[in-house]
Amino acid sequence: MRLALAIASFVVLIVHGVVFYDQFFYRWERQQTAYFDQARSLTKNEQERAELDARKPRIEQFIVTSFGDTRVDRCGTCHIAADDPRFQNHAQPLRTHSYSAALGDTLRNGHWERRHKFSDFGCTVCHDGQGRGLENKYSHGEDTYWPEPLLGYVTQANWRTEFKPHLLGVEYMEANCAQCHTGDNFAGTPNANRGRKLFFAMNCYGCHRIDGLSEGTLAPDLTEAGKKFRVDYLWESIVDPRANLATSFMPKFNLTDDEVKALVIFLKSRHGMNFAETSLDRYRATHVSETKPETVTTKNAVLTSRMEAGKGEQLVSEHACTACHKLGARDGGIAPDLSFEGLLKDDDWLVEHFRSPRSRIPDSIMPAFRFPDEEFHAMAGYLAGLRTPPRITAPNETFQTLCARCHGQKGDGQGVTALYLDPAPRDLTKAAFMNSKPNERFVHSIEGGVPGTSMPAWGKVLNEQQASGVLEYVRATFVHEPQRPLKAHKVPETNPVAASSSSAAHGEQLFLQRCAGCHGRKADGKGPNSLDIVPRPRNLRNSAFVNALPDQRMFDSILYGVQGTAMPAWIDYGLSQNDVGDLINFIRSVNPKSTGSQYASR
Amino acid sequence: MSDTTKQSGVWTAVKELPGNVWSSIFRNPLPSSDLERASTSFTNFFLHIHPVKVHKNTLRPIYTMGLGLISFFLFLILVVTGVLLMFYYVPATTQAYDRMLDLRGSVAFGIFLRNMHRWSAHGMVAVVFLHLCRVFFTGAYKRPREFNWVLGVLMLLVTLFLSFTGYLLPWDQLAFWAITVGTSIAGYAPLVGQQIKFLLLGDTTVGQEALLRFYVLHVAVLPSTLVLLIAVHFWRIRKDGGLSRPEKTGTEALTMRSEPAPNVAVSVTAVPVAKKRLYGLQGFVRGPFTKIGNVPDDSVFSWPNLLIAELFVFVMTVAIILCVSLLFNAPLEEPVNVMHPPNPAKAPWYFLGLQEMVSYSAFWGGVGIPGLFVALLLGVPYFDRNPKGVGRWFARERLLANTIFLTLVLVNVIFIVIGTFFRGPNWSFVSPW
Q1: What ipTM was assigned to the predicted interfaces of this complex?
Q2: How far apart, in whole angstroms, are the C-alpha atoms of residue A204 and residue A223?
Q3: A147: contact with B, CB 8 A cutoff
Q4: Is A73:A122 a contact under the CB 8 Å cutoff?
Q5: Residue B91 dihedral angles phi and psi, to the nearest 5°
Q6: Which of A176, A246, A248, A424 is most buried, judged by most C-beta within 10 A?
Q7: Does the reported pTM lie above 0.90?
Q8: B102 vs A: CB within 8 A
């Protein structure tokens, strides 16, 4: 035991030695000493030398209270030469902090005077990082737990590797300049300015809210996005919207890396707070003048198109509809093609759709913009005037021009807009479905459209012959199984069960028992199984769709299923015709006939 | 004449100063005879906690592994480092995290102090539990030591509570959500659960009130309670006759060899005492070890054997804690973000077994079964009245008790392991590989 005691005591001694060494020879001390030595060699007179000799290494800190919570910035401990102009070509950390007119510094008698003095601003309000840290890993925010790493200089270990190179660069600091310099066209923040313009030009404003800038309600509020999130999260949210929420319907906009960077810098500058404002400014802003949020109609003209000014046309351009839609020379690649909208929709439909997209297409992701009614009418009028049909001759051209945008180049329902349409465009390669319906049904869908969905009525663009031609083309090219004669199902033409409340109640009971697993308890197609099924279960509260559906078709779909989808033939599972009649009464009872209301389908 | 005598008097006093100071403090010489060894227990304030003689079995490392001592020394380390940390820490939600950053980054030895405190705390919870297991497996809770066992169980609970209250103080994401989980489990108690939770938190959610309460509990209330319990616990050890040992069935019952055991520093020779000498106070004190110079039994003098054993355990404990603190940093995660619970949010490791059970049933897992365990622990010495099997590890006579206890311990450990490594987001089962 005595030997073990001796060894343990020795270990204690050694550990004490190591700890003392570790805690007494800090890196910052060595750097300060190096600075003193080099400054001494640069001194010009005795007095300076004496002052330097008298200096001992110590922690240098600035305590700054004007920017929200008290900041204690100790960056000057290592970066001790930051204000010493003689160290401009030295290696970091002993390098002078740059002076430049762009930073507001002035050159007077050969000496630079700093506009943003460290004693007033500290360091972290511009650079982020951890002010209290005295080791690189902590002070630069490299440790993954620090929410504010050095902007543009540091990436953290858990960031995605493909993003890291994009997230470095001193321009990221503009996000912090913009905390105070909030002007639209401030020269020092070109990226933030561009980001702000893109925020409107790419129609982010439609879904996202930023206090003072936009009123979108469909998407998370970005007023404090810069305060809450790091730049890698912001980047990821833009280029991979479903990375953190698989059910997000944010489109993946077609942006270049530069544009994404500008947007990220703009969003990072959103702290919900302008530090340059005094409380009196804020009071005036909220109480004295009734400043409405900057309406989008004013100054945010972004498109470079030189279209002639019809008011509606100008509005469509200003409101950045082509961030998603296709119109004229620009194509957002996310929403339907509006180039000949006048042939597909009428004025009333367009105005109603503007006022509330979901009143016409219940699962649309298009935001309900809050423009004044006159603007809606002007834009609808303009769109209704687009009546030039596309020049198409052969069926394959027809398909490419009109159908492929949604149904995909390969007819598989994976067109560029497919992700963003609900119901999704039909997969035309599904032979089981395509071969289970008569041709007339398809031609009818093409000519008359499918109400409540994004399938337009092509009747004014294609005549029946052309529609049949396209159908044949589709069958020949995409459906890889030959058609066979269809067996007729015995289904009634109209619902034999009278529409009564007891019938609907029984139908509801059946629905909850049998149908809700896929179609959801609210019959909106969002049942627990729905995420695993393609195509998704039908939203049975889509009044426009359901009201246009004849009873016969509903009987057919329920009793005999829909081939090529997950809808089973319920006749095999014991549902009688009367049961189905009750079900149909229930479904119709939750789809009221009125067509004008905004809330028709919800 | 008076001058010179006075001067020589002063000069002598100065020369003799060191000796005089020393002998005013240490009135007795270092022991060199048995009588002097014996009297150390009476002549020194700190040493009077020791009995004059201890049984050899007490000093066997394999018997106790020094676990009780390790717990105590860890507690001392915790108190010392804790007080030092108190000079820098502020229990305010706006300042606590920044203070932790300062402790980590700018206070001299701050990071080391914090590491020592954290690892000693985890160590103490683990060692206290192992000590409980040791006492159970050696049957050392039986008569007359039942109440000491009860005190021990109470100290286990206080230790857990101390660790829990301290866990919140860094005020980072780890701390905040662990305590949210822990107090929510407490809230599942029937009838009084919500009130207990409110009492703990001072509010309905974890916030400034909870931080302040936990701080006061952690630095004042619980340590003083624990000190009191430790004092009574040590008192009872003495009064119950020292540590448990196997019954004497001749010398074969003990695993003592004929020559003095290697941990005995001084060989004991029994010398019959002249009958005419009476050792005053000793005659009045009842108990097994106030016999000086008796027939050889299996006891040895506390000075220096017990003292060396304790010193050894102390230095080992300190050495291990120092090494661990040097190598591993205590975690400090992001500052508290009330809007952003981690998924999964996990309680501290010693409560993960509970959390795992809670995921099956809130009441039974969080309150019912743990309550049952504590009640069983408290009651075991009063139900198990069989006096056999004391003083030996895994005695045959105690097979049933040992098996049940070991099973429950292993189940708890398995739950903790599952909760730590095998549970991911939404408490789903994930593979750690």
Answers
A1: 0.78
A2: 13
A3: yes
A4: yes
A5: -85, 55
A6: A176
A7: no
A8: yes
